[in-house]
Specification:
By secondary structure, the chain is an all-alpha fold. The chain contains five helices and no strands. The longest helix has 36 residues.
């Protein structure tokens, strides 16, 4: 259990922490300092480097979450409400990430390659909204994880 929970927490910190940094810090600085061509190119390259970490985090979260669910709690029936909520919110976050990866991120890459800045801006706006939603879900999930067992 200690290994599973440690890996689980590290994966969550990498994913949610990366979203927090991107949303709260990098987004504002890039918007203030860079013109659309540089800003869109920056974001595309940032996502290219961050998203493999998200994929790894998703894999670790799924593997360790299921490991703890079935190995420690004995399945869904043995898990508390907070575990059920974490599972649902985690799956929702993963679905949102998959949508970002397969749709607006791909379109952003094409727009940057084609120097189609208006389309790139539209795709970045979609990604921004979805990452904002995922960040809220991630922060809520962390709060549930930290305090849920005391409900």
């Amino acid at each position: 259990m200690p290994l599973a929970i440690s890996l689980h927490l590290l994966a969550a910190v990498i994913w949610v922490g990366g979203m927090f940094f991107a949303w709260m810090i990098l987004r504002r600085v890039a918007g203030e300092l860079l013109e659309p061509p540089q800003r869109l190119t920056l974001w595309y390259q940032v996502f290219q480097r961050f998203f493999p970490w998200v994929w790894a985090s998703v894999a670790v979260l799924l593997a360790t979450g299921l490991w703890m669910l079935f190995g420690y709690f004995g399945g869904m029936a043995g898990a508390g409400l907070h575990v059920h909520l974490m599972l649902v919110s985690g799956l929702a976050m993963m679905a949102i990430f998959l949508h970002v990866w397969f749709a607006p991120f791909r379109r952003l890459g094409r727009a940057v390659a084609d120097e189609d800045w208006p389309t790139g801006g539209q795709q970045l706006a979609r990604i921004r909204r979805l990452i904002g939603l995922n960040l809220l879900l991630g922060l809520a999930t962390i709060a549930i994880a930290a305090g849920g067992r005391y409900l």
